[in-house]
Design a protein that fits this description.
By secondary structure, this protein is an alpha+beta fold. Helices cover about 20% and strands about 35% of the residues. The protein has 2 domains: about 1-165, 2-Layer Sandwich (Alpha-Beta Plaits); about 210-250, no CATH class.
Length: about 250
């Protein structure tokens, strides 16, 4: 098991319309969140492309914390403010310090260490092997470079997309990322970009490229992924012995 401190972009969203507004703008069911609960969701542009993948945590009835990968916050805030008209939903940009624990679910479930005042939430797939304790504000503590590299290895092995690598604002299709099952509700009301997501799901369609795990084998981000002499995709992340690549669906495994 590892514990690593990661700085993330965040938004504090408050007001009597905060729940209703976030629910109307994001791809997952936000309105039904209980206090202390969290869900991942996409913020999409009107064409259905990903602006950012974020996690929404309900702190109180009218108080939400939205956190996302470093570098995603500015685009996420701009997107969420785009359709805010005459609603009581106030947005404040904040820094979020995530105390990340990764390992076996049994280890994490028995781990009682947490910073004072931290908000404990599931991370990544929510399968018990990843948990974050979130603190609003920047911590005086920091993790060493090798610890961050280990966290990146866990992320790549978990096939979890990262902003700026597997997610490029305004370009990436939600279905390509592989995280639709934990980031999209198909029973909630409308939200910007919904049409493309719903159409692909209803037709059983897959993205032209799919995020896959491939052997690192000397590869670097941006390298072509070649199968049998054919360029089948592009490498996006490399960590340890595993890499992630967007692979043409005919070559995806």
């Amino acid at each position: 098991m590892i514990r690593v401190i990661e700085v993330r972009d965040g938004l504090r969203v408050t007001g009597t319309d905060a729940a209703k507004y976030l629910h109307s703008q994001l791809s997952n069911d936000i309105a039904s969140l209980g206090t202390g609960e969290s869900r991942y969701a996409f913020a999409l542009d009107p064409n259905g492309k990903v602006v950012a993948l974020c996690r929404v945590t309900r702190l109180a009835a009218d108080d939400f914390l939205v956190d996302a990968d470093r570098g995603a916050g500015e685009a996420l805030l701009a997107r969420l403010l785009r359709f805010r008209i005459r609603v009581d939903a106030n947005f404040e940009s904040v820094v979020v310090t995530a105390h990340c624990t990764r390992g076996e679910s049994a280890e994490i479930s028995s781990d009682t260490s947490a910073p004072p005042g931290a908000i404990g939430v599931p991370a990544w797939w929510g399968d018990g092997s990843a948990r974050d304790h979130l603190v609003i504000g920047r911590s005086d503590e920091s993790s060493a470079e090798d610890e961050m590299a280990t966290l990146e290895e866990f992320r790549v092995r978990a096939r979890w997309p990262r902003h700026g690598a597997e997610i490029v604002s305004g370009e990436t299709l939600p279905a390509a990322t592989g995280v639709v099952p934990v980031s999209v509700s198909f029973t909630k009301g409308c939200y910007p970009g919904q049409e493309l997501v719903e159409r692909m799901d209803s037709r059983g369609a897959t993205s032209p490229f799919v995020l896959c795990s491939v052997p690192a084998a000397g590869r670097s981000p941006g390298d072509p992924y070649v199968v049998g002499g054919v360029v089948a995709g592009t490498v996006t992340s490399v960590a340890g012995e595993t890499a992630l690549a967007y692979v043409k669906r005919d070559f995806a495994t």
